[in-house]
Specification:
Helix 1 (3-24) runs antiparallel to helix 2 (29-59), helix 1 runs antiparallel to helix 4 and helix 2 packs antiparallel against helix 3. The protein is built from five helices and no strands. It is mainly α.
Length: 120
C-alpha cells in the first residue's frame, strides 16, 4: 500500500476500532463493525478516485473533474445501498452503524492537514 494511503486507513481504522469497542460494551459490536466496513469502502473508493482523477487531469483537466463528480455519485449510491442492506436486510442497529461510519468519515479531516488541495 502506498504511504499516502496508509495514513487515512490507519487514522480511520483506529477511530473505527474505538467506536466498535465502545458499542461492544452495549452489545452492538456487529453493527459497529458493519459501519466500519462501510467506512473502509468509502475510503478505498475515495483513494482510488483521487488517483484516477490525478492521472486523468494530467492529460485533460476537465476530465479529471468529471471523474471526481462521477465518483461522488457512484459513492453516494453505493453507500446508500450498503446502508439499506445493513439496516433493512441484516436488521443491524442503526445508531451503531451510522455513528461508526460518521466517526470514521470525520477522521478524514486528520488526513487533510497540511494539504493545499483535496487531491494532494
Amino acid at each position: 500500500m502506498q504511504t499516502n494511503l496508509q495514513r487515512p486507513f490507519l487514522i480511520q481504522g483506529v477511530l473505527g476500532l474505538i467506536a466498535v469497542i465502545g458499542f461492544a460494551i452495549y452489545g452492538q459490536a456487529l453493527s459497529a463493525l458493519y459501519g466500519m466496513l462501510i467506512g473502509f469502502a468509502n475510503i478505498g473508493l475515495l483513494a482510488l478516485t483521487f488517483k484516477k482523477a490525478n492521472s486523468k487531469a494530467a492529460e485533460d483537466p476537465q476530465g479529471g473533474i468529471l471523474v471526481l463528480y462521477m465518483s461522488a455519485v457512484i459513492r453516494f449510491v453505493l453507500l446508500a445501498v450498503l446502508f439499506v442492506i445493513g439496516l433493512a436486510l441484516l436488521k443491524l442497529d442503526p445508531l451503531a452503524v451510522v455513528i461508526t461510519f460518521v466517526v470514521m468519515t470525520l477522521g478524514q479531516m486528520f488526513n487533510l492537514q497540511g494539504k493545499r488541495r483535496l487531491t494532494d
